[in-house]
Amino acid sequence: MTKIPENFKEIMVKNYGSKVENWVNALPNLLSKSEEIFNIHHLRPFEDLSYNYVADGMVGHLPVVLKLSFEKEALKREKDVLKAFEGRGTVRVLDYNEKLGALLLEKVVPGKSLANMGEDQKEVKQFCQVFKRLHQTQVNVNSEGVPTLVEWFAALKRYREIEGTTGDIPEEEMTLAEILLEELIQTTIDPVLMHGDLHHGNILENQGGGWKVIDPKGLFGDIHFETIQYLLNYIDRQGDPDIVLERRIQWMSSYLNLDQMRIIKWGVVRGILEACWALENGEDLDKGLEITNRFRRRLRLLAEVKEIDNNCYF
User: Which of 48, 151, 231, 293 keeps 20 to 30 A from 59, CA to CA?
Assistant: First the structure.
């Protein structure tokens, strides 16, 4: 029988609450059926499981990854996004069973993450190459079931409805985030399908020195937002976080022909989203506020360089 880590149920309940217990209890049966249907053998769970049960194994002589998810809709969206980006550097979908909530994928070998390069500029350049391949042209996709950025940032609206102007998030930062979000949404000309979680850990080295993209969330909106999750990782890579952020944005805007100001504004809003999510989960909001303030400092400097007269940045 395929092993299920002892603390997996505890992790899942922490993330989803007691509603997930029946799914975890049924997991041995789901695994058994998946092994039979997909003809998988030698399954071994990954370390550090969190929101899904993920294991590697073999189908014949082919290395594969099996993902079982409590959130079946999210798993279907992942499958659909990978299919939409097929041939652009994403892992291949080998099989899918909606009833089981099971997705079978090719395994990336050796599978080291982009972070293993250990040099910021090289990593950013590789990220940009992956980004360009992914977004070389608009993909044809049924956007039904893919959240828009308006939907993704709904926690800001929920916060305002519950807390008004007297919540834990400083009102100045909250108001700025709302202003920028509305501006960014209204000025998005050509919304695109995005990976939605394109960071170091989801870009893996493949055999022969190539790179494969895994674990898309699937979002629909401004392509500038696709850079943000990368910018939130390894923030002090070879330098002070503010310096690292500045040079990464400069590199990305140059390599990808993107607007620095839009990237920075999305970063400000993304930090407040992090804070709103933290409050909803009963967690500390400091990480989100730190993100917002780091991007806001960059926004102030760029506004000065461009001689933009907008007091809300200051």
Answer: 48
